[in-house]
């Protein structure tokens, strides 16, 4: 406990943390982490579910075929058979999706 107190006092005196030289670098790194393609996850849950998870994690919205409402919340993704929910539309306005994550879409059967 005493060690934590000494470390926190040292950081308290700093105006800027040593590793935060550029906050844009941090946010760019974090966005890249969110966009990283997990091929094992695609195999496990299917391409549409994996693409939905990626899009929602990055702040986009997804609408499934046969449904009128947009899915906005990652924590409320529909459950049930994995092949039941096919992506029909995507609204990526103000999201952090990056081209490195587009492999999520490669195997998804998005309806046009």
Automatic annotation (TrEMBL):
InterPro entries (alphabetical): LRR_dom_sf
Protein name as catalogued: Distal membrane arm assembly component 2 like
């Amino acid at each position: 406990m005493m060690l934590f107190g000494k470390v926190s006092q040292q950081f308290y005196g700093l105006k800027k943390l040593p590793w935060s030289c550029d906050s844009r670098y941090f946010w760019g790194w974090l966005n890249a982490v969110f966009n990283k393609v997990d091929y094992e996850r695609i195999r496990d849950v299917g391409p549409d579910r994996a693409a939905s998870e990626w899009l929602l994690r990055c702040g986009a919205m997804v609408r499934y075929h046969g449904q009128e409402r947009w899915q906005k919340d990652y924590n409320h993704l529909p459950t049930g058979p994995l092949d039941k929910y096919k992506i029909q539309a995507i609204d990526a306005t103000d999201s952090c999706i990056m081209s490195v994550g587009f492999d999520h879409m490669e195997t998804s059967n998005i309806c046009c």
